[in-house]
Amino acid sequence: MRDWIRSDEEMARCSEVLKVLIFLTCSLHLSSSVTHSMQYILTGVTPGINFPEFTEVGQVDGQQFVYYDSNIREMIPKTEWILKVSADDPDYWNRETQKLQGAQETFKVGVDTLMRRFNQSTVPPTASVFQKHSSPEVVCHATGFFPKTVMITWQKDREDVHEDVELRETLPNQDGSFQKRSILRVSAEDLQKHTYTCVIQHCSLGEKMVLDVPKGPNKLQI
């Protein structure tokens, strides 16, 4: 979301609205000088959520007076005093709607560009599973990934395991990437009888990364 610095054309638009506002203000405060603030809030979001991809909200002194979004595709007044603009300029609402439809397309391109750049900056993890000799602890270690958020879980015969699991803090690497490890305590006997796997999920991966836990004190790396 951002507040736009208005061009001369946009300032003219603001002036049209302020003419009505000044008239209203003067009728209420005839003997005092009053300062008002006008703000337009434009928001662009990615598709796929229950919210319009583009909205504009116009406010004067914190009160909403116009509204537009990509679903209704029309600028609509939200207060009675703004309706007086169309008395002097019958084409005002149609013209403003067309401007916002153009701004909507500009925002869509901008959001798409930002998302492409964000996706290009993701780095998948390198992962390994290992167990030290005679230790009941199996370690699943993911490193070199970006961004920071990652999920590491365990499965036993394809069923999720939540007990005897220690999830360590995500730590930074010197190159700006991150690392994280999860430790599973399991007996040697249980490890031989069942199939244990470490499951890693990260936004850079098209699908889950699944690593089988070795049956002996060795290491598997992907």
TrEMBL record:
Domain Ig-like: 125-202
Keywords tagged on the record: Glycoprotein
One Pfam short name: MHC_I
One GO process term, biological-process aspect: immune response
Keyword Cell inner membrane: no
Record GO cellular component, one term: external side of plasma membrane
Signal sequence coordinates: none
PANTHER family assigned: MHC CLASS I ANTIGEN TRANSCRIPT VARIANT 1-RELATED, MHC CLASS I-RELATED
Annotated protein name in UniProt: Ig-like domain-containing protein
Lineage: Eukaryota, Metazoa, Chordata, Craniata, Vertebrata
